Amino acid sequence: MIRKIKIIKTIIIIFSLTFPFSVNAQTVEEIIKGRKAMFSENYQNAKKISILLKSKKIQEAKPLMKKISDNYDKLLDYFPENTKEGSKTEALPSIWENKDEFNALMKKASDDMIKLAKAIDTAEDLRAVQKELMWSNCSACHSKFRAPH
Length: 149
Known about the structure:
With 149 residues, this protein is mainly α. Helix content is 72%, strand content 0%.
């Protein structure tokens, strides 16, 4: 019985990776939870990047930067009109009122993570370049588009 459950779980995982569902097919709750999970993952990875850079483990930090960049690109699809409220969202109405600005910030954050991955190879001050290309984007978004917590 346990073997059958493992096989079923494996099939579900393979199916979900092979045929990903679009954001449009998800419920409001699933979309909000999905975007929260991506932002949370980005924050956790950003903290790991800080630790790795402090330890001069530059090559180990780069895949995390790519993952953050990819998440920012995906997040562009996680703010449809019907997700302004619900599931304890911390997203402010300013996201939808200033959609172009928000999307531009998500795109900039994504692009800046790729720039960071390149810049850390030659940067004199890893902390400064990280602040400029990573943490400043977080601050810019939180100050305008996220409810205080």
